[in-house]
Design a protein that fits this description.
Layout: E1 2-6, H1 13-25, E2 35-39, H2 42-45, E3 54-57, H3 66-83, E4 88-91, E5 103-107, H4 115-118, H5 125-143, E6 146-149, H6 152-162, E7 168-171, E8 199-204, H7 213-225, E9 230-235, H8 242-252, E10 259-261, H9 270-275, E11 279-282, H10 291-298, E12 303-306, H11 311-315, E13 320-322, H12 327-339, H13 341-355, H14 360-376
Parallel strand pairs: 1-2, 1-4, 2-3, 4-5, 5-6, 6-7, 8-9, 8-11, 9-10, 11-12, 12-13
Helix pairs in contact: 1-14, 7-8, 7-12, 10-13
Length: about 375
């Protein structure tokens, strides 16, 4: 079997991490796959490690904007896959406009399937873009011979929206790179901290409407007002809600004494950022599978977490949960952890142990096993005449 991978729209963030780690850990020969051909832009291809069975292929249109990449996918990809002798096509980006069969795709973005979250953007160009994704991905999932979901929660949410018969489906979670794992740090009482040596709370995510950074900032402001020597570190690219966050920071901490927004930080630097943190927080209300939550778990940190979406499925009983839209409830969860070193140690231990179930080797093996299963069960359409 030869497998083609359409990575034309895999250009940043978790999508690139998944592709790079999947191919780094893969052993496709064990599943009857003799060659894997990846089409993508130079920036993505350069991050993928070379393998004897791997062919990295570039096309000039893949360096251009989205309309050009859609045109390439619709008008060129299927021909290229056939001429390369591909037996299947894997489309991890979730949207596919070509006619090559069989193809397997992935659901990596739950936002287009959550109407309550979409409404946060009002009638705007962003909402229209999300609704377009909802249409293209729904169409892709209906046509696909196989669809991979990252969590059972995401599987159920998407299936409930589409209400259509799919091909084969599988739940295959992402993994965690070994560099994030470390021994669980000792937990000290809050009295060991001070304004000059503060207790550091970290939240890593895009600044978006459904991430609720401003509610977290308000909660930390409450703790500071109550005398707790805490600092909030916010890390992540600027998004649609950056002005909302900046306005909140200006009101809660006008001098910038305890709320720090560091902007985007490279994936390679995240293990170091996590090592300099006392408590990890995740306040999103819409996720498919939050990789950064897995990384906080692997880092052996106590975790305060949103009670929405798949977070309880991923974290289980290894964290303290809160309503991400209620600053008082966020403050309550943080206070529980801050005041009890024993609770922090107990939950950090559970989270670290739970993170061991998530590995990129497992993800790669289950992905290629699923692709091989789809291909072996595919009935090639018969030509008329």
């Amino acid at each position: 079997m030869k497998l083609g991978i359409d990575a034309s729209n895999i250009r940043s963030g978790g999508g690139v991490t998944h592709l790079v780690e999947l191919l780094r850990c893969a052993d496709p020969l064990s599943y009857g796959c003799t060659q894997v051909i990846v089409w993508s832009c130079h920036a993505t291809l350069n991050q993928i490690e070379n393998r004897p069975w791997l062919v990295k292929t570039h096309h000039a249109l893949l360096e251009k904007g989205l309309p050009w990449r859609i045109y390439w996918q619709k008008c060129h990809l299927s021909k290229l896959a056939r001429s390369a002798g591909c037996d299947a096509l894997f489309v991890p980006g979730g949207s596919y406009a070509g006619d090559f069969l069989p193809f397997i795709t992935m659901s990596q973005n739950l936002l287009p399937f959550d109407w309550l979250e979409i409404r946060r953007y009002g009638w705007s160009s962003i909402m229209l873009k999300i609704l377009l994704l909802r249409w293209t991905q729904s169409r892709t999932f209906r046509k696909a011979q196989g669809v991979i979901f990252l969590t059972q929660y995401a599987h159920d949410a998407v299936m409930n929206v589409i209400k259509s018969t799919f091909g084969k489906t599988a739940v295959i979670p992402h993994g965690i790179a070994d560099r994030f794992k470390r021994p669980i740090p000792g937990q000290r009482p809050i009295t060991d901290y001070s304004l000059t040596n503060p207790f550091r709370i970290l939240y890593v995510s895009h600044i978006e409407q459904y991430k609720h950074q401003w509610h977290v900032a308000e909660a930390v402001g409450m703790l500071r007002a109550a005398g707790y020597p805490v600092v909030l570190d916010l890390v992540g690219p600027k998004g649609n809600a950056i002005k909302q966050l900046q306005t909140a920071m200006g009101k809660i901490d006008p001098d910038g004494a305890f709320i720090k927004y560091w902007g985007a930080i490279s994936y390679g630097k995240m293990p170091e950022i996590l090592r300099n943190t006392d408590l990890f927080l995740f306040a999103s209300s819409c996720e498919n599978m939050p990789n950064i939550l897995l990384e906080g778990m692997a880092a052996g940190l106590p975790i305060a977490c949103s009670n929405r979406g798949p977070m309880p499925e991923v974290l289980g009983d290894a964290g303290v949960y809160f309503d991400p839209e209620n600053p008082h409830d966020i403050a309550r969860a943080l206070r529980e952890l801050i005041e009890s070193p024993d609770l922090r140690m107990r939950l950090a231990t559970k989270a670290s142990e739970r993170s061991n179930a998530y590995s990129w080797a497992r993800c790669a093996n289950e992905t290629f096993e699923f692709i091989a299963e789809v291909v072996s069960g595919y009935d090639q359409p018969k030509e008329c005449g």
